[in-house]
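Human:
Take a look at this sequence-structure pair and walk me through the tokens.
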Amino acid sequence: MLFDSVTAAIGHTPLVRLRIPAAPGVRAYAKLEMQNLMAMKDRVAKEVVLRAREAGTLVDGAPIVESSSGTMALGLALVGNHLGHPVHIVTDPRIDPITLTKLEALGCAVHVVEAMTGAGWQSARLERLAHLMDDLPGAFWPQQYHNPHNPLAYRALADELLKDIDGLDVLVGAVGSGGSLCGTTAALRADRPELTSVGVDAVGSMLFAQPDRPERLQSGLGNSLQPDNIDYAVLDEVHWLSDDEAFAATRALAREQQIFAGNTSGSVYRVLTHLARQAAEGTTLVGIFPDRGDRYVESVYRHRPETQPRSHPVQVPYGTVVTAWSFAELGRNHRRQLGFIEANTTGTGMTAIRTAARLDVEPVLFTSSPQRYRGLPDVRVRTVVCDTDDTAELARTIKANLSSPAGIATTSDFYLPQVSELTASFDLPGNPPEAIAVCRDKAATRRMLSAAEVRQPGYAVVAATDEIPAAIAVTGLPCVVKPIDDSGSNNVRLCHDLAETADQVECILAVTTNVRGQATARLALIEEYVAGPEVSVEMFSHDATVTCLGVTAKSTLAPPHFVEARHVFPAALPPALHAEVLTLVTRALSAAGIREGATHTEVRLGSAGPSIVEINARPAGGMIPELVRLATGVDIVEQHLRAACRLPVQLSPARDRTAGIAFLTAGRTGRLTAVEGTTAARRTPGVVDVAVTAAPGTAVRPPRNAYDRLGHVIAVGSSGHEVSEALDAALGYLRIEVNHDRTA
């Protein structure tokens, strides 16, 4: 073929029949994407860069910045430099010398991170990339894991397959960003609706409901982060191979088929040969072989296995932790649904829905107001509008929309009662309605703890101001006044005298609806103020066992309000105190009747010992699940959803780190002008995330509840002291500019 440019030469790769013993008429082909000028990701680089130029998001001569350890980097080096764009590649020490030499020879600037951060090499690279984006105005970030043009780039590959062979029954491909297999499958199904699509992943990759193990050796497939480009709904089966098995398969591919390829192609070859030997007469199979072997001479081809590779895979239920070649069926044709009854508007809300996708369930959001969820358009979720306060209507709507419900869940306090009633009526995993009722009603919590003789502050419930003197006689002064049924520290106040207490009680009793428009109980809880540090205990109940995931140290802003300003996980408690807190919380959960899923219990460490402040029958808010994930590798939200769907739960820590968060707050009332210094804050050693969640022009004030926070900084380190120092240093760079505005 004759091409007038290197970009025009991308694609048009050979389709080679493999010599595999199989039933008569079974044909197995290798689509040699390695025969692109660089590798398979040349297709993605071409599609993404050309579309960005057409849209104006990449102007002539502007730089391109991407995180990649291999073929995407080479594709961008090829396309970007050919079209006149300086290319910056962020990678890690696992990059092989050949790829590094190629990138430098093609004119790329290569930035190698020095160490893993909270989520492994991927997160370390993304942090460096953020710094580069700040330094390079007008730079374009292709975002291969989330850019919709990634899977769309493979329409051309599908067209080539349809042109080259008559009939195609099974497609096998490796999964990293999700683009190649999902994009090719989606395009082929328009012509071959019965096509079976089989994904190949690495043991230790989190893409298909496995615990993340960043120390895995395979490259080119697997991931430590969740890409948006994986469409789980199009896949029929997934196979996992260990490093030893993938590398042995790669060497076998060279020896048996004379194809010198990388470990991604080797993994596909191993699965393809297995499926071909099992296939019925006349079946046609194609494997996508992405990469050449020259990058892997010193790693894959000289690797000495520590284990004996399996000759055949073991079938496991989806969600089972695997350590060697295994496979699980996915539910493309019989996919169950996980119903979400509303969600948090920040934090874990949209994250939980994204997480559900990799659990092989279809997330369905039931909401009375889709517009309240800012990130909803970016999430693959079916949305059903209904009255989520009416449990009877919810039940009817769920029956009409969930043909095979796997579970029902929520990440919002305000909908826990509805979920508990629905899970009970549909015979799905969940907590008993009476347990949820006790936890949602702080007055009921107090009565339950009293009956169980679990230490807590003294308390009284009032429905009118004339009941306050008797209440104070029980609690003393100062006292804490709060509504019995709100969330996010809303309307919680420390009161020092009778007048302050009366004002706060009147404020609470005057509120008739909460932020979701639900009727309030119009009752105030007056509590004894327990002086001392505050912690929260993150527990998980499942299969009649209660597991402590850790204790979070919490700092609040100065009274009178109790707005959380900082969390550090895990808290550095003395062993005896840790054991006492754990025993106290375990007794409280047992007394409440909690039996399933994550809980978040707040505890005050007073002079008389730890006291229960409140029990939340759901995963923690305030980004604590992210701190737990960064510190231990355990994703609380994922495990909570697993329990809701009767999937295996994985609570064993994969790492031993410390993580912390500091929240951004306004020092005065007005309108937010800007938050300056984010670039310097992101560059602080140990900092993994700086986020500003409030837009310029937002009305702000010194915080009275969690909704008044403006953003956060997250850091990871080896100790609480190291994390706190990183947070303090990052906050030192940040300046929150607020204009005075009497209307704010």
Remarks:
- DSSP finds 21 helices and 30 strands in the chain.
- The mean pLDDT is 94.
- The two ends are 67 Å apart (CA to CA).
